[in-house]
Amino acid sequence: MVNKADIFWFKENFAKDITPHLADTPFDLDMVVAIACQESGSMWSEMRKANPPLPLNTIVSLCVGDTLDEDKGRKAFPRTKDELVAWKDGDKMFEIARAALLAMSEHVSGYGFAKTNKRKFCHGFGVFQYDLQFFKEDPKYFLEKKYETFEGTRDHCISELLSAVSKIDLDGKKSITDSEFCKVAIVYNTGSYKPIKGLKQGHFDGEKFYGENIADYLRMSRTVALPGHVPVLTPPASGTSSLPAPTPVTATGAKYIVDTKISTLRIRSEPQVSTPPTKNVIGELPDGHPVQAVGETATNGFLHIQTSLNGALLDGYVSTKFIRKEADPAPIPVLEPITAPVAGAPQAVYMPIKSGTVIRRTAEAGAHSLNEAGAPSRTGTTPDELRAGIAAIIDWLGVDKEDHVRYQPTKKKTFCNIYAHDFCKLAGVYLPRVWWTDKALMKIAQGEDVAPLYADTIDEQRANDLFRWLRDFGMSFGWRQTGTLTKLQDEVNFGAIGLIIAQRKVDGLSGHVVMVVPETTEEKARRNAGGEVIAPLQSQAGATNFRYGTGKLDWWKDERFSNSAFWIHA
For position 413, which CATH number holds? Predict the structure, then answer.
C-alpha cells in the first residue's frame, strides 16, 4: 500500500504538472494525488525505489496494470485476447498491451507469470488508469500510447473527473468537500454512485472498496506537504487520527442569544415540534448561547439558525420565543479542543491501585481501570493502522463474553460507562472512570497539590456524570462535539475515537454512552437513501452487550433522556 513517503515523492515530482491545470475545476492537488495512489500507486511506489533509479518518464510509461487472458467474471470489453483481436486494430492493441505488461513486469513484483503465459495482457493504462474497455470509442488514446506521458494521462483524468461531477449534480461548484470528491471518484471508477452504499462501492480489492481506498489516500495526502508549504491537516502523532478543523458558521443573518431561563433550547431539523417531541431534535443549546440567523423570516414560530457548540456546527430551527436579538453582535466562536495539558488546570486522574493488584475483565467492575498484561492499543498514523488498533481493542475487551464479568449487566446495573472508559484508555484517549470532586477542583484552582482519595477528592463517573464532564472538561482533554452522525462515522472510519452520550432526565437513573466504531467489510452503519448515516456502527455494554451493532434507531432521543451529544477525539 502507498505510504506517506510515496505520496511525498509523487507530489515532489508531479505537483507542478498538476496544480496549474486545476484552476478552473473544483478539485485540488490532494484529490488528484488520491486517484493516482489508488489507480497505479502499487506500481510507481515500487518503481521509484529501483536501483539503479529509473528515469521519471520511464516510471510514468510503465504505469500499466491488471491482466486479462480469460473471462474471470469481467463483463466489460475485452474479456479475452480473442475478443480484443477480433475488433478493428485489436491485434495491434494486443501487441501494445502485451508488451506493456512485459516491460512493467521487469520492475514490479508479482507479475513474473506474464512471461510464461503469452495470452496475458494489460487492461489498465497510465498513472490514472484508463481501462481498455474504452478502446472501441477512443482507440487513438491507446494505439498512440498517450498514457505513456504524464500530460496525456493527467488531462484525461481531469476530463473524466469533471464528467463525473456532472453525474452527481455538483456542476457549478467552485470547490467540493472531501466527502463529495469521494463520490466523484466512485463515479470515475464505476460510472455511477449509489448514496445508500456510502463509500462501500467501486472495485473491491478483497479488503476495501474503491471509495474507501480513495478516502484513506485523500486523508493521508492532506497530511503531506512539500517544503515551504503547510499541510491541510496536521500530521498526527502515532496512535492518533488527523481531525479536520471544526466547520465554521456560514450564516450571515442577525445574531441572537438563547434566552430561556428554564432549560436548554432544542434545535430541530424542521420548523415544527415533532411527535414525539424529541424526534426531530438535532441538538440542545445552553441558555445564553449565541446563534446566527440563516434567514430573517420565521416559519411556524421557528427561525432557521446556525451556531457552533463545542466545535460542532449545528444547523436547524429554534423557537423564536426563546431567543432575543443581540445588541452588539460578534462572530460566533468556533472552539477547538486543547491537545496538550494546561498548567494549573485539572489533570487526568485514575483510582490508585495497590501494588501487585491486577484489575481483570473477568472480575466485577469497580472504580479501578484495567491493568491486565497484553492489552492492545491504537498505534500508527494511517487509517488502516488506526482501524486495526481499534478492532483489536474491541476484540480484546470482548464485551459480549460471559466470562468478562466486568461488563455483564445485572438486574440493577449496567456498565456502559466502564466499557467506554476501558475502550478509550486502550485507545490513548482520556474519558474518566473517576474524576475530581468539587472540593478537590477548588483546591487545584488555588494551586494546591491534591492526592486522589476515593469519596474525598475523587468520585466514580457514571453516564450522567460523563455527559457533564464532556460538556465542562472534554475540550480540555482533546474532545470536541460534532453535529451530524455522518461526520461522526466518517471520522471514526479514519481511526478517530467517537461516542454518543445521553443524559437521563432523572439524575439517579442511568444515562447511556456507546462507542462509535469503524465500519468493516461485514459490519456497516445504516444510511438513508440520500447517503446520510442514520445509525452509526456502535459498540456497547448495557442491557445488551455487543461488539458491533447499529442499535435502536435514535435511541438517544428517547423521552427518558434530557439531552444528548456526539463527541469525537483524534
Answer: 3.90.1720
Same structural domain for residues 121 and 55?
yes
Ordered DSSP codes for 445-456: HTT------BTT
> Of the candidates 280, 306, 325, which is a domain's last residue?
325
Instruction: Judge whether 561 lies within some domain.
Output: yes
For 86-113, what is the HEC assignment?
CCCCHHHHHHHHHHHHHHHHCCCCCCHH
Residue length of the chain: 570
DSSP letter for each residue of 236-264? PPTT---PPPPPPP---S-EEEE--SSS-
Residue 63 included in any domain: yes
User: pTM of whole model > 0.85?
Assistant: yes
Instruction: Give the per-residue pLDDT at 101.
Output: 95
pLDDT over threshold 60, residue 71:
no
Residue 208 sits in the same domain as residue 107: yes
Lowest mean pLDDT among 68-77, 326-335, 462-471: 68-77
Domain count, the chain: 3
Cα 156 to chain centroid distance, Å, stands at 29
CA dist., res. 222 & res. 29, Å (int): 9
- Domain of 307, CATH number, reads 2.30.30.40
| Opening angle at CA 548, ends 542 and 550, nearest 5 | 80
Of 304, 325, 346, which one is at a domain's C-terminal end?
325
Find the helix or strand (DSSP H, E) in which 163 lies.
Answer: helix 150-167
Q: Is the domain of 182 the same as that of 306?
A: no
What span, in angstroms and rounded, lies between the C-alpha atoms of 469 and 438? Answer: 12
Mean pLDDT of 365-374: 98
In angstroms, the CA 531 to CA 476 distance is: 33
CA-CA distances (angstroms) from residue 394 to 111, 399, 401, 425?
38, 8, 11, 12
User: Does residue 32 have a pLDDT over 90?
Assistant: yes
pLDDT band, residue 70 (cuts 50/70/90): low
Q: Coil, strand or helix: which one is 293?
A: strand
Three cell numbers, residue 175: 470547490
Residue 537 neighbours by CB under 8 Å, 6+ apart? 489, 492, 516, 517, 518, 519, 523, 524, 525, 548, 549, 550
Query: Which of these, 285, 277, 278, lies nearest to 318 by C-alpha position?
Result: 285
Domain contains 235 = no
Q: Over 80: is that where the pLDDT of 102 sits?
A: yes
CB 256 within 8 A of CB 294: no
Residue for cell digits 498548567?
343
Residues 262 and 396 in one domain: no
pLDDT digits (tens, 9 = 90+) for 247-265: 999 999 999 999 999 999 9
Q: What is the dihedral of CA 456, 460, 464, 468, to 10 degrees?
A: 60
The range of the structural domain enclosing residue 152 comes to 4-222
